[in-house]
């Protein structure tokens, strides 16, 4: 299998894994906003961003968000799709860009931390715009949820997914490198 085909297959597997994870693991983490549910779909998205770069991570985020929108979260419709793309896409792009230029353990941690912060920041105006204008929630209600619910939710979700990515990344890279020793992903000892 040539390397571009192999890359597409791996990205497809990561996207499928993201959809499976969000289908079977979903639970609220902020008691005051039980509709905000944690799901670990960002872990395969982050792995794609670390393995193949921020564009690949964003691509996997779009695929996962689309499949989520037409299956397990169909009630949220296109707004949920856009919100998921904004959230996971921001996380993948920021984390992937930093890791692309600093392919070390510290670079990965920095990328994840800044990605979580960027995701948290970008979801404030996204909620103020989409939740108010398309889901009809009054703006004062959404504003009142920013500090006690929206910010903590994004920090917790992103942080948990970042920790899981750190724990799973090396074994995953070792596994796919042993599967095809020519891939060269495990050769960089600083990954």
Automatic annotation (TrEMBL):
Q: Which domain of life is it from?
A: Bacteria
List where in the cell it is found. Cell membrane
Pfam families, alphabetically? ECF_trnsprt
Which Gene Ontology cellular component terms are annotated? plasma membrane
Cell membrane recorded as keyword: yes
* Membrane-protein topology: Multi-pass membrane protein
From the UniProt record, which GO molecular function terms apply?
Answer: riboflavin transmembrane transporter activity
Which key words are in the record? Cell membrane, Membrane, Transmembrane, Transmembrane helix, Transport
Bilayer-crossing regions: 45-67, 79-99, 105-130
Main localization is membrane
Q: Which Gene3D superfamilies match?
A: 1.10.1760.20
Q: Which PANTHER family match?
A: RIBOFLAVIN TRANSPORTER RIBU (PTHR38438:SF1)
Q: What does this protein do?
A: Probably a riboflavin-binding protein that interacts with the energy-coupling factor (ECF) ABC-transporter complex.
Family of this protein: Belongs to the prokaryotic riboflavin transporter (P-RFT) (TC 2.A.87) family.
Q: What is this protein called?
A: Riboflavin transporter
- Give the organism the record lists: Halonatronomonas betaini
**Lineage start:** Bacteria, Bacillati, Bacillota, Clostridia, Halanaerobiales
